[in-house]
User: What shape does this take?
Amino acid sequence: MTGLMIAAPQSGAGKTTVTLALLRALARQGVDVRSAKAGPDYIDPAFHAAASGSACVNLDPWAMRPELVASLAAPAGESAFVVEAMMGLFDGAADGTGSAADLAALLGLNVVLVVDCAKQSHSVAALVRGFATHRPGVALAGLILNRVGSARHAALLREALAPLAIPVLGVLPRAAELALPERHLGLVQAGEHAELAAFLERAADWVTAGCDLDALAALAAQAPAPATSGGGAAVAPLAPLGQHIAVARDEAFAFAYPHLLDGWRRAGATLDFFSPLADEAPAKDVNAIYLPGGYPELHGGTIAAAGAFRRGMREAAARAIPIYGECGGYMVLGAGLTDGDGTRHPMLDLLPLETSFATRRLHLGYRRLQETDGFVWPGRLRGHEFHYATIISEGPGEALFTAEDARGADLGRFGRRKGGVCGSFLHVIDREA
Assistant: This one.
C-alpha cells in the first residue's frame, strides 16, 4: 500500500493546518483525495471532510486490530490518500506502541515531516537526522519547513539540510491568520466555524504557493484495491446495539466514530439520527439508542429544557431497550451536570450519576476494557478516555466495564448500568485481536 502521512516531531508544529491546506489544494485541482486521522480523534476528521469533500476515517494502530486498520485504509479506485499523524511521529500509547510511525510501517505510508522552524536554523539538521534514522523501516520521504521567517532563513535551513539528501517539498512562511481556535478537548468543532470555507481556501493558497503539490500528490497516490479484497466488509465490526438504532447527533453529541456506525450498517442495522439540542426525541420504533460523546457541558441549559427529548428518552427506558451513552452521553444519562460556571443542570436521571466541570481534571489515555456481564459487547475491548469532568457521585448499581491502562495497570470499574440503560466515560473503538 502507498499513501502519504503528514507527521511532525511534536504537537503544535502545524501538521493539522498543513494537512487541511493540502487536502483542499488537491481537491480543487480535481484530485480524488481521501484522508484519515491517526489515533483517537473526533474533531479533526470533520475538518478533513470539509477540506477534501470526502469522509475521513480514524486509523488507530493501538486500539484497532491490524486487519481493521488495513480494511479502513484500503484504496478506493485511483484515489490519493493523506493521513494526518497524531502528536509526534514516534509518540503513542504509554506502553510505547501505537504511534503514527507504527501506522506508517503497517500501511507502507510515505512520511513527510512538518518541521516548525520558527526558532532554529542550522540545528534543524540534527533534528531531522534523528527522525530520519531513529527507526529502520520508517524513512522520511520529504520535509515541509513551516513558520519560516524570511528568504534568508529559508536559505540557512536548506543549507543545513542539504547533506541529508531528504527532499524539501515545501517552505511555508509564518501565517498567524491560519491558526484554528481551540477549547478543552481540542479544536473548536468544524461545524461551529462560520468562515471555515474561506479559511480552507486561504490555507490552500498558502500551501500551493509554498509546496511542490505535484510531488506531494505523487507520494499520496494509491494503486486500486484488488477486486477480491472485499474492502472494509471483510472485517467483522463490533455488533450493533440493535437493528434499528437512534443516534444522537449535534454539537453536543458529535463524538461518534464513523467506522463504528458504518460497521453497524454493514451488520444490517438501520440508523436514525436525532438532535437533542433541537429538542428531538428518538423515534418511537427504534430498539436501541446511542448517545455519543461531545460537549453537553456547553449546552446544559438547552438539554435540561428539551422536554420532548427528555420524555422520549424516559419512554424508551421504560420499554427496557438498550440505551448506551459514552462520555458526554454518559453525563446526560445521569441526574445532573454542573457546568464550568458552577450551575447545575438536571439531566435525564436514568443513571445514578452527578458530574461537574466546576473543578476540571484531565483524564486521558488508552484503555483495555472488559465488559462486566456481556450486556453491550462481551469480551476484551480497546478504547480510550479523554475528558475533564469530575464525578461527584456515581451511585449504587453494577459497573459496565473493568479497565486497565496501556501498561496493564488496573484502573478499576467504570460506568453504571440500570435496567437497559448503561454508559461510562470510556470510548470503545474495537475489540482485541
The first strand starts at residue 4 and ends at 7.
